[in-house]
Design goal:
Elements lengths: L2 E8 L4 H10 L3 E3 L2 E8 L2 E8 L4 E7 L14 E4 L1 E2 L2 E2 L1 E2 L1 H9 L18 E4 L8 E7 L5 E7 L2 E7 L4 E3 L1
Antiparallel strand pairs: 1-5, 1-6, 1-9, 2-5, 3-4, 7-8, 10-11, 10-14, 11-12, 12-13
Length: 165
C-alpha cells in the first residue's frame, strides 16, 4: 500500500522538534512555512512561522500500521483521527501546497497576476475592494489602481493579499 498523508498536531512551539524526530524515524514530513512580520517595541521583526500553526503533514504507510508510532514521537501531540483511524489528507492538497513552496518549505506568493487583471483585495484595511493591476515591481509587489470615493488611487500590495476577480 502506498503512503498516505496524515494531519498531525504538534505540541505548542515544538514544530522543529516534531519534524526532526519524525524524520529520524524515516517519515516524510511536510511543514509549510510563511514569513510573519510583527512589531516588537519600536521595530518590526520578520520570522518564519508555520502556515498552519499547530499542524504538519506526515506521509505514512497505512497498510503496515506504521502510523501508530507517530503519536509517541517527541514533539507530537497526536494524529488527527476520525473515530479509530487517522484522517487522510488528499494527496492533491499536499502536492498543491508543495508546488507553492521553495526548497526550504516557505510558501512563495503567487505571481500569476498581469497588468490589466481585475483583482479583489482579500486582506488588510482595503479588503473587499476590487481594482486593476497596473504593474508588478521587481520585489513582486503588485501596484493596483482602485477607485475610492470617485478618485483613482494607486496602492502597492503583496500578491498574497489579492485574488483574481
Amino acid at each position: 500500500m502506498s503512503d498516505s498523508w496524515l494531519l498531525v498536531q504538534y505540541k505548542p512551539n515544538s514544530h522543529r522538534l516534531a519534524v526532526t524526530n519524525l524524520e529520524r524515524q524515516g517519515f516524510d514530513v511536510f511543514l509549510p512555512m510563511t514569513e510573519l512580520t510583527k512589531r516588537q517595541g519600536a521595530r518590526f521583526v520578520t520570522r518564519m512561522t508555520p502556515l498552519f500553526p499547530g499542524y504538519l503533514f506526515v506521509a505514512a504507510d497505512m497498510g503496515a500500521m506504521q502510523w501508530r508510532k507517530i503519536n509517541s514521537t517527541l514533539g507530537v501531540s497526536r494524529i488527527v483521527m476520525t473515530r479509530d483511524t487517522p484522517s487522510i489528507v488528499p494527496d492533491t492538497l499536499v502536492q498543491s501546497l508543495k508546488s507553492r513552496c521553495d526548497t526550504t518549505g516557505k510558501i512563495v506568493p503567487s505571481t500569476d497576476f498581469a497588468p490589466g487583471d481585475r483583482v479583489e483585495i482579500v486582506h488588510g484595511p482595503l479588503s473587499e475592494f476590487v481594482g486593476t493591476v497596473e504593474k508588478i515591481d521587481p520585489q513582486q509587489r503588485v501596484w493596483i489602481l482602485l477607485e475610492i470615493m470617485g478618485q483613482t488611487s494607486r496602492v502597492r500590495l503583496d500578491p498574497d493579499q489579492l485574488n483574481k476577480d
